[in-house]
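Hey,

Quick one before I head out. I ran the complex with LYK5OOP5 overnight. Inputs first:
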Amino acid sequence: MKEYRKGPVLLRGRNVPTTSTAGHLLDSQRDIDWLHGDPWRVMRIQSEFVEGFGALAEIGNAITVYGSARSAPDSPEYRAGVEVGRLLVEAGYAVITGGGPGCMEAANKGAADAGGISVGLGIELPFEQGVNEYVNLGINFRYFFARKTMFVKYAQGFIALPGGFGTLDELFESLTLVQTRTVQRFPIVLLGSDYWGGLVGWLRDTMAAEGKISEADLDLIRVTDDPLEAVEHVVSLTRDNP
Ligand SMILES: C/C(=C\CNc1ncnc2c1ncn2[C@@H]1O[C@H](COP(=O)(O)O)[C@@H](O)[C@H]1O)CO
């Protein structure tokens, strides 16, 4: 009886295939629907984690800086971002950002100009965009969730400059991870009291007052206008036990 071994599987008789697995691999004429299927997507997602872990595993102590993609280079928050990037590098930390324009570019500029590791975790968007010119270690992601894992896994704290939906998304994911003790000892600083004050007031007067978070959860956040204070805060809480 005819038989065929397909990896560990033994096939006999009518189950013996007329083509082989290696033959399929080498057949350029086969349909390519699989390229757009979930199993193939899983491989791409896996490769993003593998590439990200490989590229970032050795960056040492790092702080992730969030902030608006829209801040102009002559804005106060851009200047604050440059200062934060510089001070973090001077304190011995690498700087991680989303690699985009605005506040991300500012923090990368401060870090790169100070001679430090300036990481940009770019994201593939519908419009053309690469990482900003101040990134000296860049990775481009297709998937937001893989990229967000890197923001947390390779940083010991966060500093958020004024920002929009993207910044809030990253901030609240970070807060949830700290609140639920999924990550430990993660200082979170909001830089810009005028900008963040309304949100923090609402968290205190509505969210905490109505019992949706505890008063202690508010202690997870430090608000300041001073880049030096922001950096000293994250450094003081991460230096001995990063
Ligand atoms: C809107 C513009 C460019 C968008 N480019 C981005 N590149 C990289 N990362 C981005 C981008 N937009 C948002 N992000 C992520 O969200 C945060 C900023 O979003 P916000 O809504 O502006 O606050 C940021 O930390 C990134 O991780 C061209 O103007």
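Residues 49-240 form a domain with the Rossmann fold fold (CATH 3.40.50.450).

Talk tomorrow,
K.
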